[in-house]
Specification:
By secondary structure, the protein is mainly α. It has helices at residues 6-9, 11-39, 43-68, 78-89, 91-100.
Length: 104
């Protein structure tokens, strides 16, 4: 691999978001089940909630990747994957925090 390849420069961010999305599939399945059970829903409700959660996380993956991929240069570690995972679920808060921060 050459250092000029743009994908090579983004390899840490790509790996982080890919692993976080993979783990989010399981988190969304558990969360969808719990939410549907609390709401007293049936299997169709569970599937709808799961689908909405997956759509939310995939959108978050795109937003977070677009915002921070250029700055992600540290090697991938378990702690970094957990940070990416949390970022995928909390991405609206990350956007709001960035928007409300006073400019210097």
């Amino acid at each position: 691999m050459t250092q000029q390849d743009p994908l090579w420069k983004l390899r840490h961010a790509l790996a982080g978001v890919a692993l976080a999305l993979f783990l989010s599939v399981f988190v969304a399945a558990v969360a969808g089940r719990l939410i549907a059970d609390l709401a007293g829903g049936d299997y169709g409700t569970r599937v709808a909630i799961y689908g909405c959660l997956l759509l939310y996380v995939v959108a978050g993956g795109a937003v977070v990747f677009a915002k921070v991929a250029q700055h992600e240069t540290r090697p991938l570690s378990a702690g970094r994957v957990v940070l990416w995972l949390a970022s995928l679920w909390l991405w609206p808060a990350l956007l709001l925090a960035r928007r409300t921060r006073p400019s210097s």
